[in-house]
Write a structure and sequence with these properties.
heterodimer, A: 336 residues, 2 strands, globular, B: 263 residues, alpha/beta, Rossmann fold, 6-stranded mixed sheet, 4-stranded antiparallel sheet, 10 helices
Chain lengths: 336, 263
């Protein structure tokens, strides 16, 4: 997959042209310029936080779906996201390579493949050991994470890759705030995916059965739901959400083989902040964390901001100490 | 009371055992149930009644014995599969999907029917049996009263139109007036020809419903009433104490106290 390694210079040029960078990427050359911004940049910072928050929200909901149905904390969520990003890059080609697939098809293909991968890994790795207990299964997902990371390292090397935005053109001005076009894609498609998820969970047979497994696994078996199969479905759905997040994210960040773990960590924080029980909570936690992170990093001196990845860890500790039940208590669903 | 001796067997259990590790909860129980018949299983707490049902339907893997439904062996199948074959358990303590609506609970009851057209028909049927369900469609099942929850549990069990319905402790934790409503519904079901296996600690209730009674003690069937016996107090006492119903009355008196433990 040598073809992934092209256009690095052009990509970098695209980054600086967009004039905004994401706070979660590993410490990179854009950091000093970003933090040179003053309070006048607050609206942009907030928008940036919301956009990142959408990605965290998707990843947090992915964690939530898997956890609620199976009780497994899927540490590989960030790596499924990475896989979605890398495969989208592979199929679409960086920066408009005409020999590649159309963008929509590339995203679809990437998401389908990662979804299948999620289901398959559950079947092959988790399923045979699902009686071993949560801690064992958590460690298994850490293993899956490492394998996915290693699997991505071999073809991509330790290089970084970028993709053109889904629609090209200058940033759009909304009430004087310049918003890159990809941001609209990210926020809009996140809303659509969440809407579809809500519809699926409340209106379809398979969605109701998935929730039944979550609410009362014994009762689910008693009405004939093959709960084991829904473990696979939950992992596949979790992988789908993460892969989709990766696909819409890749135009605004660098994709690297090891981008997954920081995202897993942030998704985990978002999930806990949101109360770890309802999808709405996870979304609120994701967006809330995104904004918080953007503001904290955006207004810290570079010497502090360089420790950017410590922010979610600190927040996690604070969240777990202060609000063990999460922020959305009233939405909490009783687990029977 | 009509017996159903000429009907084919719906459920046959042979020498069924259920063990949890070293604890043998059910020891070689055999029973059979004809179509349209209502069999009551009574016994004290811990006699193995619930484990018997769990073993029959595959919620727990039996350690031995055979189960067949309509002459097809289903022993060793998991509960997800036996439900598909028409054996449905309404579990002890109801096990509803508490955070979901009554309607969703019922629809999940018909999960094994897939997208069949029968589903709305079944909904109508159970709402006719329990009119309260129609009024509470959108209410969360967990917020219903105990009696209403029991009705939802039975209705959910009926949604897949089972061949045999097993009901575990339908009266558990319910106020007497509510118990009556549940019993009336079960009676109506029996009248409609549903084959029922009812486990009850409350012997009077079981007697009011069942054609026959089995008495369990320490995991085994220790007594049962004859298929054609009238289920009155005397038969019951006989069932508990053994011997014909007209056995010496002084012995009965001596042991009646024992019986009243269950009654």
């Amino acid at each position: 997959m040598v073809f992934l390694r092209e256009d690095r210079d052009e990509h970098t040029a695209h980054r600086s042209a967009s004039g905004r960078a994401l706070v979660w990427a590993p410490m990179m050359d854009w950091m000093p310029t970003f933090f040179a911004t003053g309070i006048g940049q607050l609206p942009e910072t907030l928008v940036s936080g919301i956009v990142n928050g959408c990605i965290y929200a998707l990843a947090a909901v992915s964690l939530l779906v898997v956890y609620n149905v199976t009780g497994v904390i899927n540490f590989a969520v960030g790596d499924f996201l990475m896989a979605g990003a890398m495969l989208t890059l592979l199929f679409a080609g960086p920066n408009g390579d005409p020999h590649r697939l159309p963008l929509a098809l590339a995203v679809l293909l990437a998401v389908v493949i990662v979804t299948a991968l999620g289901g398959l890994l559950e079947l092959l790795v988790i399923h045979p050991r699902r009686r071993y207990g949560t801690i064992f299964l958590l460690i298994l997902t850490i293993g899956i994470s490492s394998v996915l990371e290693g699997g991505a390292l071999i073809p991509t090397g330790s290089l970084t890759y970028g993709l053109r935005p889904f629609t090209s053109g200058p940033a759009l001005s909304v009430a004087g705030v310049l918003i890159p076009r990809q941001d609209f894609w990210i926020v809009g498609s996140t809303l659509i995916v969440m809407g579809l998820l809500w519809y699926g969970a409340t209106r379809t047979r398979i969605g109701k059965a998935l929730r039944a497994c979550e609410v009362n696994p014994t009762a689910a078996r008693l009405v004939g739901i093959r709960v084991d199969r829904y473990w696979t479905i939950a992992f596949a759905l979790g992988a789908l959400l993460a892969a989709f997040a990766g696909a819409i994210l890749v135009p605004v960040t660098y994709a690297t083989y090891n981008m997954g773990i920081p995202i897993t960590l942030k998704a985990f924080v978002a999930w806990i902040l949101g109360g770890a029980e309802s999808p709405l909570g996870a979304v609120a936690g994701g967006v809330g964390f995104g904004v918080l992170e953007a503001v904290v990093l955006g207004y810290s001196p570079a010497s502090v901001a360089n420790y950017g990845d410590a922010v979610p860890l600190l927040l996690l500790i604070v969240a777990l100490v202060i609000r063990r039940r999460g922020l959305t208590r009233q939405m909490a669903v009783t687990r029977v | 009371m009509t017996t159903a001796n000429d009907q084919p067997l719906a459920l046959k259990v042979d020498d069924l055992s259920v063990a949890y590790g070293a604890v043998r909860a059910v020891r070689g129980v055999s029973l059979s149930l004809r179509q349209g018949e209502c069999l009551g299983v009574v016994g004290a707490n811990g006699a193995g009644k619930t484990s018997l049902l769990a073993g029959i339907c595959g919620l727990v893997r039996p350690s031995g014995g055979r189960v067949s439904l309509d002459d097809i062996a289903i022993g060793g199948l998991k509960v997800e599969e036996t439900v598909r074959r028409g054996l449905v358990l309404v579990p002890e303590r109801r096990q509803l999907f508490a955070s979901m609506s009554v309607r969703d609970n019922l629809l999940l009851g018909s999960y094994v029917l897939g997208r069949e057209r029968k589903v709305p028909e079944q909904l109508e049927r159970v709402e006719e049996l329990f009119p309260m369900l129609a009024q509470r469609r959108e209410q969360r099942a967990g917020t219903l009263s105990g009696g209403e929850q029991q009705m939802v549990a039975i209705a959910r069990g009926l949604m897949s139109s089972p061949r045999v319905l097993m009901v575990d402790e339908p009266s558990l934790g319910l106020a007497p007036v509510v118990v009556d409503a549940v019993v009336d519904a079960l009676r109506e079901l029996r009248r409609q020809g549903m084959t029922l296996l009812i486990v009850e600690q409350n012997v009077r209730l079981a007697m009011a419903l069942a054609d026959r009674l089995l008495v369990m003690e320490q995991g085994a069937v220790v007594r049962q009433t004859a298929a054609d016996a009238e289920l009155d107090e005397e038969t019951l006492v006989a069932a508990y104490l053994g011997g014909p119903a007209d056995s010496e009355s002084d012995r009965q008196a001596a042991d009646e106290e024992e019986v009243s433990r269950f009654v």
